[in-house]
Design goal:
21% strand, 2 domains, Ald_DH_C, Ald_DH_CS_GLU, 14 helices, Aldehyde Dehydrogenase, Chain A, domain 2, 7-stranded mixed β-sheet, alpha/beta, oxidoreductase, 37% helix, 6-stranded mixed β-sheet, Aldehyde dehydrogenase, Aldehyde Dehydrogenase, Chain A, domain 1
Length: 491
């Protein structure tokens, strides 16, 4: 039986790759190739950017903000309607639990609904000025063609975080999904045509970073880059964008502290730890991969955590009772195992897991792993593993917790577990992170900005803040004088 073949989506149509080449995409649970994906190059990027630019200067640019919102609302309804199908394809590509992927894709619809409503709510300002005889106001104008580059862990969700505000702002887009998870994005692209978007507003070019990502970032007609991924790739994109003074939104890595004080509800804290690191097999930029535990409850917390996590069921991610699925890619699987080896060599003590499970599926499974005896200076505590590997670090008091929590190059997220309102506010104020949860972990919403401090990124996604990432501000000065003042003197 022939396997599905996915072409690029350019100017509202399926377009074969200019090279004629395709690459395989595999199911990380079965290890089987299930589809062939178009292998793009610079010629495909040129075609996609040209289509986007024509749409921006033509039919899309001529729409009112209210009309853009109406199209986004139609799209949102279609996303919710087609969520099971889109989730099935994404799950087949990255091995995430079906139950989580379906919920994520449905929630994508809410993102587009939110920005549909926001599209015509971006209001300019009339500005009182100290200059007599002039009237001043601002305009917010779409930047134009934006490049959206997304990773393999939550491709559709993380695309929507960028694409929804970009479209609401009036921009057009060329999307480059991860080469490991391209199929769901190409299926999603077809919904734009059904929703009535003009051709070229959203384009998808698939392929590898050097062949598609680099020419897309460097393209002279791309005004802004939205990227989610690793720190090293983010730096390369930032450097390339800087050469042409392009703006960027970068959501990069994290090594987030999940801080548990001795007055916390330990049963709830254990659930928060599990949610923070073992959900999605730890393949999350916001993962709470460092658990900081107050010394007086250190041993008890470990006992409860090991007991709870030890019952987690690994296996087929399509089954509703499975709790931990496979690692999404073979390179990432090898990387996680390498970090487990490094942790042992550094002197950390593995109290749970620490091994691959070749008996499950195609063998791309790693047991949920917990290390104690971790010093925050160890590589296992400083570097992003992006897998089901947890470091437990003891602390003495609030000052010690804050010091350890901030002693990291990243600043994406963190959490505080305490019954004390004073302590919660005191610690959240001092943690250098873009998101801090109190007595919960991993909650996000289309209403609330998300992004990082330090090496965790630049800019914000979600919430009303995000739309301004895709807008330029123009100041307009209108003279009300009947006579021109002295032209040799600046007003």
């Amino acid at each position: 039986m022939s396997l599905p073949r996915y072409d690029h989506f350019i100017n509202g149509a399926r377009v074969p790759p200019a090279s004629g080449d395709y690459f395989d995409t595999e199911n990380p649970y079965t290890g089987e190739v299930w589809a062939h994906i178009a292998r793009g190059n610079a010629a495909d990027v040129d075609a996609a950017v040209a289509a986007a630019k024509a749409a921006f200067e033509g039919p899309w640019g001529g729409l009112t903000a209210t009309r853009r919102g109406q199209l986004l609302r139609r799209l949102a309804d279609l996303v919710i309607e087609h969520a099971p199908r889109l989730a099935e394809i994404e799950q087949r590509d990255n091995g995430k639990l079906s139950s989580e992927v379906v919920a994520q894709v449905r929630y994508m619809g809410e993102y587009f609904h939110y920005y549909a409503g926001l599209a015509d709510k971006v209001e300019s300002k009339v500005i009182p000025t100290d200059k007599p005889g002039v009237f001043t106001f601002t305009r917010y104008e779409a930047k134009g063609v934006v490049a959206i580059i997304t990773p393999w862990n939550s491709p559709l969700t993380l695309t929507s975080w960028k694409l929804a505000p970009a479209l609401a702002a009036g921009c057009v887009a060329v999307v480059k999904p991860s080469e490991f998870t391209s199929a769901s994005m190409l299926e999603f692209a077809a919904l734009f045509e059904q929703a009535g978007f003009p051709p070229g507003v959203v384009n998808v070019v698939t392929g590898f970073g050097a062949e598609v990502g680099e020419p897309l970032v460097a393209h002279p007609d791309v005004a802004h880059i939205g990227f989610t991924g690793g720190e090293l790739a983010g730096k390369r994109i930032y450097e390339a964008a800087a050469r042409n003074l392009k703006t960027v939104t970068l959501e990069l890595g994290g090594k987030s502290p999940n801080i548990i004080f001795d007055d916390a509800d330990l049963d709830q804290a254990v659930k928060g730890v599990v949610s923070g690191i073992f959900a999605a097999s730890g393949q999350s930029c916001q993962a709470g991969s460092r658990v900081l535990v107050q010394e007086s409850i250190h041993d008890e917390l470990i006992r409860r955590l090991v007991e709870f996590v030890g019952t987690a069921k690994l296996g087929d991610p399509t089954r509703p009772d499975t709790q931990i699925g496979p690692i999404a890619t073979r390179p990432q699987f090898e990387k996680v195992l390498d970090y487990i080896r490094i942790a042992r060599e550094e002197g950390a003590r593995c109290v749970l897991g620490g091994k691959a499970r070749p008996d499950l599926g195609a063998g791309q499974f790693i047991e949920p792993t917990i290390f104690t005896g971790v010093d925050n200076r160890m590589r296992i505590a400083q570097e992003e593993v992006f897998g089901p590997v947890l470091c437990i670090i003891p602390f003495k008091d609030e000052a010690d917790a804050i010091r350890i929590g901030n002693d990291i190059l990243y600043g994406l997220a963190g959490a505080v577990w305490t019954r004390s309102l004073h302590r919660a506010l005191y610690v959240t104020e001092r943690l250098k992170a873009g998101t801090v949860w109190v007595n919960n972990y991993r909650a996000t919403s289309f209403t609330t900005p998300f992004g990082g401090y330090k090496r965790s990124g630049i800019g914000r996604e979600s919430g009303s803040d995000a739309i301004h990432e895709y807008l330029d501000t123009k100041s307009v000065w209108i003279s009300t004088d009947l006579d021109v003042p002295n032209p040799f003197i600046r007003r």
